[in-house]
Design goal:
With 152 residues, the chain is of the alpha+beta class. The protein is built from three helices and eight strands, in the order H-E-E-E-H-E-E-E-E-E-H. The strands form two sheets. It has a six-stranded antiparallel sheet with strand order 1-2-6-7-8-4, with helices on one face. It has a two-stranded antiparallel sheet with strand order 3-5. Strand 7 and strand 8 form a beta hairpin. It is globular, with a radius of gyration of 15 Å.
Length: 152
């Protein structure tokens, strides 16, 4: 795994408070590991902690971070992407507690020009907390422009 030379803000279109990841721990062809810590500033924090189902968003942001690194390394801009589906999703911890450090992994299962499928998981202290197979879509520039204008 290589160390990531980019700040997380450079890899994702998200901005606080919706930016849930702290940094990319490492990456290699087809795989990325990111970190997030549940703290007082966590967007979805309740008195019990962050609900476990928010793991889907942590995992989706890890997929987006992988796409961001891939774009930057190719000399291209980071683009918006969309989570279009989650299959085989398991949430094994109902809450992520204050102080929990989450390691979020995303590994490519399928990739073409605009679609990708990632196997993802969230671990806390080496224990699996959630996993899912996420399908994501990244429109090309022309598709995105037509979505904005309602044309095409």
């Amino acid at each position: 795994m290589r160390e990531c030379p980019y700040a997380i803000e450079a890899l994702l279109m998200h901005r606080p408070p919706m930016l849930l990841l702290e940094r990319v721990v490492g990456y290699q062809e087809g795989h990325l590991v990111a970190r997030a810590t549940v703290d007082e500033s966590s967007l979805f924090l309740t008195p019990q902690g962050v609900p476990g189902h928010i793991a889907i968003e942590y995992m989706a942001q890890a997929c987006a971070a992988y796409a961001g690194i891939t774009a930057l390394e190719a000399g291209e801009p980071v683009k918006i992407g969309f989570l279009i589906g989650a299959r085989e999703c398991r949430v094994l911890r109902p809450w992520f507690r204050l102080g929990d450090q989450l390691l979020i992994s995303a590994s490519i299962v399928f990739l073409d020009e605009q679609m990708a499928v990632f196997d993802c998981n969230v671990e806390i202290n080496g224990q699996l907390a959630a996993d899912a197979r996420l399908s994501v879509y990244q429109p090309d520039g022309d598709s995105l422009a037509s979505m904005r204008t309602g044309e095409g």
